[in-house]
Design goal:
Elements: H1 2-8, H2 20-30, H3 35-48, H4 52-57, H5 60-67, H6 74-90, H7 98-102, H8 109-120, H9 129-140, H10 146-156, H11 162-175, H12 193-196
Helix pairs in contact: 1-11, 2-3, 2-8, 9-11
């Protein structure tokens, strides 16, 4: 997967930073919006609110205005409240512990892991629907329980390479092991339980 990623990685602006604030903005935007629509809004949002403190001090109406075009405005309000709570409770420093993160507005298990990985370089699994699909096909013939998939995801993260690993899986799930998988392009065919069982698109 890491070798595949070296040759196929997507160039995305939030991959060029490890600033936790920038990571939170990108993750909130990506929750329900396609990557190509997020890229210009991400740049514009950070130009308007360059720091967590600037966002915390903004009026909610201005934050929603900057969010226009992304939809699901509730995310903008969560992000605004997130900034206010980090400034008010954590001195403006995004916390790096999962419990503290998950107590903040709009931050669930997925987003907290994404912040820990991409914002703090921790080797934690970032498990979205695409990554679950990959593990499910590789190890469980397209099945597998939520817990089983999470356990595999935890075991698989290579020490010291969590950021590359999670980004690689996201790209692999978007470009190769998609809903309709492109197994002809896949370097994992001989290891993939779903492919070997003849049910790769399960
Ligand atoms: Fe996905 Fe097909 Fe590769 Fe299996 S062989 S991991 S189903 S792309």
């Amino acid at each position: 997967i890491l070798a595949w990623y070296t040759n196929n990685k997507r160039k995305l602006p939030w991959r060029e930073t490890s600033d936790p604030y920038h990571i939170v903005v990108s993750e909130m935007m990506l929750q329900q919006t396609q990557v190509d629509r997020v890229v210009p809004k991400y740049h514009a949002f950070l130009a308007r609110f360059p720091t967590l403190q600037a966002l915390a001090a903004a009026r909610a109406a201005d934050v929603i205005d900057a969010w226009a075009g992304l939809g699901y405005n509730r995310r903008a309000l969560y992000l605004h409240r997130f900034a206010q709570e980090v400034v008010g409770t954590f001195g403006g420093i995004v916390p790096s512990e999962v419990d503290s993160l998950q107590g903040l507005p709009g931050i669930g298990p997925y987003t907290s892991r994404a912040i820990l990985c991409f914002g703090f370089g921790k080797d934690v699994p970032v498990v979205d629907i695409n990554i679950k699909r990959i593990y499910s096909r590789l190890f469980f013939r397209g099945e597998g329980t939520e817990n089983g998939l999470l356990n595999v995801a935890r075991e698989m993260v290579p020490v010291g390479e969590g950021v590359a690993w999670n980004n690689a899986l996201m790209d692999f799930g978007s470009l190769v092991c998609m809903d309709k998988p492109r197994c002809d392009l896949c370097p994992l065919r001989v290891q993939c339980s779903a492919f070997v069982a003849g049910v790769p698109d399960k």
